[in-house]
Amino acid sequence: MRVNVIGGGIIGLTIAWECRRRGHDVTVTDPSPQRAASQVAAGMLAPVGEAYFGEEALTALLIEAARQWPAFVDALGEDVGYRTEGTLQIGLTADDVRELSRLWRYQESLGCTVERVVPQDIEPLLSPRARGVRVRSDHQVDPRRVVSALARSVTIWPEPVEADLTVVAAGCGSAQWGLPVRPVKGVLLRLRGPVGLSHVIRGAADGQAVYLVPRDDGEVIVGATSEERTDFAAGAGAVRDLLRAATDLVPDLAEHALAETCVGHRPGTPDNAPIVGRLDEKTLVATGHYRHGVLAAPLTAMAIADLVDGKPLPPLWHSFSPGRFS
Length: 326
Description:
Layout: E1 2-6, H1 10-21, E2 25-29, E3 44-45, H2 56-76, E4 87-91, H3 94-109, E5 115-117, H4 119-122, E6 131-135, E7 139-140, H5 143-151, E8 156-157, E9 165-168, E10 182-192, E11 200-205, E12 208-214, E13 219-223, H6 236-249, E14 257-268, E15 275-280, E16 283-287, H7 293-308
Parallel strand pairs: 1-2, 1-9, 2-8, 4-11, 9-16
Antiparallel strand pairs: 3-7, 4-6, 5-6, 10-13, 10-14, 11-12, 12-13, 15-16
Helix pairs in contact: 1-5, 1-7, 2-7
């Protein structure tokens, strides 16, 4: 079957890759794939850290998505920065820890494993004020490496081509198909310095939420703000708040170089959950993944490829159909 995937971000490329693996003739359409949100994403594979109140169906989906990543990395056959050291969830003040404790209890109520630890025993560079837990199952990957590996396996065209089926995976651009997808602006920083951290750090410093994602070359990703805006300007206040929270958690980061300031737009939906399913006889959709696009990409690709093959969506996806907003 001829399949045209509209969208050259990690969702669209993974769908194209999976469909090609199943023997379909696939092209990808995107006039500016370098603007995809996945080029800015930090790459946390953190279904437990992203388990929030009232999102039980989404959490179940993301936990299953995380299970697909080892096999996906093996199938890609390239070094994409997949790391399994785990994540520390950290607070500095009593208020930070009190708020996080509510979240930890909720995560445990869902059956997630949250381990009480002395954070400095695991990451000595952390502030002596840091208190928190370790989530061994929350991992990370480098989205830029993943996208580069996927892009080498597909053909990307600037304009749509004739196909038997079209898959709309255009992120924020999916609104052109009448889908309720909006851009949620995020500022993210890339620091460079000596290799020091091994775990992802998710935390709060005096109420400011922040995450730190260390790469194996000494880069540390610091993110990310969240604003209902469409511009690409990195505001001085946003950069200040991220740097202050990061250096409060890990004081040695003050000696790192600010190598890059990134701005992207997450594709949000009214319930901030993905839209995956069939729009009509010739159109499928996989969009609106908000902050979960990297984590959900392999599982999303399998679901869409099943639809292309004429199979039904697995039950995990039933809560995320396009029809729920009708």
